[in-house]
Amino acid sequence: MAASDTPSAWSTGNQWFAVTLGLLGLMVGYSAASFQGGSAVGGIAPLAQVVPSDSLPPPPPPPAGDVPPVDPKIDHIQGDGNADLFVIEYSDFECPFCQRHHPTMQQLVKDYDGKVAWVYRHFPLGFHQNAEPAAIASECANELGGNDAFWQFADLVFEKGFDFAAHAKEIGLNEAKFKSCIDSGKFKQFVQDQMNGGSQAGVDGTPGNIVYNPKTKKGEIVSGAQPVQNFKTVIDRMLKE
Fold this sequence. Notes:
Elements: H1 9-35, E1 76-78, E2 85-91, H2 96-112, E3 116-122, H3 131-160, H4 164-170, H5 175-184, H6 188-201, E4 208-213, E5 218-223, H7 228-240
Parallel strand pairs: 2-3
Antiparallel strand pairs: 1-3, 2-4, 4-5
């Protein structure tokens, strides 16, 4: 059989098969490049690119509700009682995040040197069996030794645990009176009232923090044991308002 200028059916099929394979390879390459955030061929842009979450600005903190006013007669304040801003912390002595958050609050008071004060309020969670007893014991420490004794007692609870009698002895409180105060339950309702006030202000967990301007009565909730810089961002803005 003489050769023909016309391709046979077999050779034609092979050519179309090769073309098809080439097109498939191009499509796969384009898809892979798109998935990786690169270009497929000749600078063709991918269909979509994922934006890293850490490049997005954090959402603004929500406004607080009706915040009970700071009262030096009943509140535990660390720092200047006439500060421009208060960071009101609703806390639970058994909460591990509150324990981690404690040094952050100490640093804020130090760094702002009179402009920001720390207010500690109780928010014992029901599933922490030591939280309410610790809150009551801290109020007994305050009754017997004043505001300084409260803070010393609070530091010891977060540092060493729930041996209340040992803490009272370490800071020099009358042990018999301290035990009598705890047994009386006289501060149980006070602790509950503070928790109710926190809920009313919008706190739903611990540590529940409210950056609060006592002059404007404006507060913003910064929930949880957040990095100190997150607090400073809110504080610096509110100090300028």
